[in-house]
Design brief:
With about 220 residues, the protein is α+β, with helices and mostly antiparallel strands. The protein has a domain at about 1-140: Ubiquitin-like (UB roll), CATH 3.10.20.740. Helix content is about 20%, strand content about 20%. The chain is built from five helices and eleven strands, in the order E-E-H-E-E-E-H-H-H-E-E-E-E-H-E-E. The protein has helices spanning about 35-40, 95-110, 130-135, 145-150, 190-200, and strands at about 15-20, 25-30, 65-70, 75-80, 90, 160, 165-170, 170-175, 180, 205, 215-220. A five-stranded mixed sheet has the order 2-1-5-3-4, with helices on both faces. Strands 6-7 form a two-stranded antiparallel sheet. The chain has a two-stranded antiparallel sheet with strand order 8-9. Strand 8 and strand 9 form a beta hairpin. The chain is globular, with a radius of gyration of 19 Å. It binds FE2/S2 (inorganic) cluster (FES). FE2/S2 (inorganic) cluster (FES) binds next to loops.
C-alpha cells in the first residue's frame, strides 16, 4: 500500500444532498464526501482511529467498518475511504452483528499490546481509543497473563521475532526529539501523515498496512 493517500473531501453547506439507506432507513446525506462524514452529518458516529479530516486517508485501523450492499452481496468496507453514492445501502452495528463483531475483533487486535489504563496523553478520560473500546463492549481481555507477559518479553517490552531480530521496546530512539514507545503506538500513521502533509517536512515514515505492521521509524540523514 502506498503511503501517499488522498485528502478526504469534507461536506459543506453547499454539498448536494443524496438519498442513501442506512439500516434499511432512507436518509438524506451530503453526496460529495466519504461515508464516515456523511453518517456523522445525520448523527451516526462511526468509531475511527487513523482517520482525521485534515489528513490524507490511510485506512489502516479498520475501526470504521460498515457493511455495504453490492452486486456480490453485503461486504465490509471502511467508511472513511468509501465515497457516498446515491441509493447505496449501508448497515451499521445497529442492525448488523457482522459489523459489530468485525469492529470488536479489529479493536482487540489493535489493543492487544496496549494497556487501557494508558495515561500518556493525559486527556482525563477523553481518549477516543478508550471510548471506542467501551462502546464496542470489549470489557474483558482474552490475553492470559501467563502468555501475555511472556509475549511482551523483557521489562522493556522487547522480544525476539521469528527471524531472530530484537523487536519492540518502550524507549526506541528514533531521533533527538522523538521517542517511540511500541507498547503505546497503535500504528495509526497520523504522525507520519502530519509530517508529510501539514509540516511539509517528511521526517517519519512507516510501512504500516492492513496485513503487516512494522515500526514507524525516523528518516535519518545519509
Ligand atoms: S478510520 Fe477508517 S480505517 Fe481507520
Amino acid at each position: 500500500m502506498s503511503n501517499y493517500y488522498n485528502m478526504p473531501k469534507l461536506p459543506t453547506e453547499a454539498s448536494p444532498k443524496v438519498e442513501i439507506f442506512v439500516d434499511d432507513k432512507a436518509v438524506m446525506v451530503p453526496g460529495d464526501t466519504n461515508l464516515l462524514e456523511a453518517l456523522k452529518a445525520v448523527g451516526i458516529e462511526t468509531p475511527h482511529v487513523c482517520y482525521h479530516p485534515y489528513l490524507p486517508v490511510s485506512g489502516n485501523c479498520r475501526q470504521c467498518l460498515v457493511e455495504q450492499e453490492g452486486p456480490r452481496g453485503r461486504m465490509l468496507v471502511i467508511s472513511c475511504y468509501t465515497p457516498v453514492t446515491p441509493g447505496m445501502k449501508i448497515y451499521t452495528p445497529a442492525s448488523s452483528a457482522r459489523v459489530k463483531n468485525a469492529r470488536k475483533a479489529t479493536q482487540e487486535f489493535m489493543l492487544v499490546n496496549h494497556p487501557l489504563d494508558c495515561p500518556i496523553c493525559d486527556k482525563a478520560g477523553e481518549c477516543t481509543l478508550q471510548e471506542n473500546y467501551m462502546e464496542a463492549g470489549q470489557n474483558e481481555s482474552r490475553l492470559r497473563p501467563e502468555y501475555g507477559k511472556n509475549y511482551h518479553g523483557n521489562p522493556e517490552h522487547q522480544f525476539i521475532d521469528a527471524k531472530g531480530q530484537l523487536r519492540g521496546g518502550k524507549h526506541v530512539d528514533i531521533g533527538p526529539r522523538i521517542l517511540l514507545d511500541e507498547e503505546r503506538c497503535v500504528q495509526c500513521d497520523r504522525c507520519v501523515r502530519f509530517m508529510r502533509s501539514i509540516a511539509k517536512d517528511e521526517q517519519l515514515s512507516s510501512t504500516t498496512n492492513t496485513t503487516s505492521v512494522s515500526r514507524t521509524y525516523a528518516r535519518r540523514a545519509p
